[in-house]
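ERR on first pass: missing label on line 2. Operator R.T. fixed the label and resubmitted. Corrected input:
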Amino acid sequence: MQRSSILFWAGAVIFLAVVFFMTQSLRNEYPFFAGYVILQFIVLSVAWTILGGYAGYVNFGTNAFFGVGVYTAVLLFKALGAPLGIQILAAAVVGGLLGLGVGLLTLRMRGIFFSIATIALAIVIETAITNWRFVGGAAGIQLQRPPVMPPFDSYVKMLFFVQALMVVIAIAITRFIQNSRIGRGLHALRDDELAAECTGVPTLRLKLLACVISGALISAGGAPAAMYLQFANPDSAFNLNYSVSVLAMSLIGGTAHWIGPVLGAILLGSTQQLLAVTISSEVNVLVLGLMLVLFVVAAPKGIIGLVGRLTGKGGHA
Amino acid sequence: MFSIDLLRDAVVLGVLLGCFYAAVSIGLSISFGLLDVPHVAHPAFLVLASYGVYWLNDSYEIDPLLAGLLIAPLLFVLGLITYRIYYETFERRGSDAAVRGIAFFFGVAFIIEVLIILQFGVDQRSVTAAYIGKAWRIGDLRIPIRQLVAFGVALGLTVLLATYLSKTFMGRAIRAVAQDEEGLRLMGANPVRIKQFAFGIATAVLGVAGALLIIIAPVEPTLDRVYIGRTFCVVVMAGLGSISGTLIAAIILGVAESIVLTMFGASWAPAISFGLLLGVLAVRPQGLLGR
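pass 2 clean. output:
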């Protein structure tokens, strides 16, 4: 193993250990309740970056994948009483298949057409779920959490730990892609798809792979939301705010490196949590919009780009 | 449940609705279709215009259509400014302008939504005028007068813009810039100024379109989200930048929505525009009358 890999995995183990220790020692549930959302956004943003950042295909259908994850969990829980782990795995499979579908459907599209197609897909799926009685239809569905498993003493703390685990998995996968042939191939097809194809990069396979992995991770990251909220309805599960939040987080952090979306999600996620509690959810959306506009106009490469410019290296990233 | 009468009514109402969709999409047909600006905030501007009309109607009892004309100059200026910002920050710098441009316009759309909520609240708003609330009967078919007004104005607006783009000097210049920007530059014209003017026109049209939107039904701040689907569906299906195509595509969408509404109920309606859009993108990306 390389030195950076050892550092990364050591960091991951320490992170999980700290999270586990917190769930065992802190009594108050609120930090976990608020922190869960930030962890969730880290998973979503990192997963989004695989397709949106490395490959340059701006997916606006984050809410489609998120909602599909939520409703896979709802369906399995309601029909079979499946445990959380199964719900997440199933959501990943369904999300991956949906990603494959998106990839196949949008083979010939680039730029804004791909983005619009993904928005369209989200609405079509949302409408289908709205008309599906078994999972609650438009009114939504209440869910009763099963008893919590030891060593955790509350379900929210367990969800927090599970989501932290998914953060590590998502980052590990994204980091692997970034440093492998896949990442370099995606980079090539982002810069010039035709030239990449001509020089022997299997653009089609890479694009489909990116769609599948990104989709699977987003759906998996969304799956526990059903148990977290103990409620699911199409309007909130497929809310366009997820798409724009994730887009904003990734762009604010910078999409050239996996650390970008992590930073963006932590920064914007905690700001949003703070604003939602202290002021109102409207101002929350306003700040989201303002930060998105500000960063794409003033700092196109995000925080990574700013740091790179300050330190005088990595500015090309 | 199914009957020919019902189908006939659905088609008639669908055509009326379709012309209205043409009116709200035609600005996007210029800004996205001709100028290649990924203007996702177009429907947000539309809803903003509706609220402007609502405000004038509510405070000064001005007829909504007249109010739409009154705010058109303001919208024109808003369009000029928007394009200038877009051009300076994205188009001129070149690299991945489209990607960051979409993000930019999404941010703008969200900001407009929230500003409307902060100013007017989340409740639905509607306007009052003599022709709203009455209906015209032909046999057992009942056509609301507001639909007829929207139909007439929308048709007029579309014809007017089509004529403008094909007959006037400036209109031809706009189409020229869409076809060959470099060529226009070589002729000694400034493509950026023409595009900026065209974007202004595309936004000014929203004054009347916004009036129609609030005449047809009450508006709410987040209404723009469904209209992203409808307007982009119409423009893409039309074939980018084709004005006559816009009218045809809008009528197809209107009839399709109206039939689905009659047969399956309102809960399926949102999927129609996006479903059509997906279908068109997958099968015939150049649209009906594509270049």
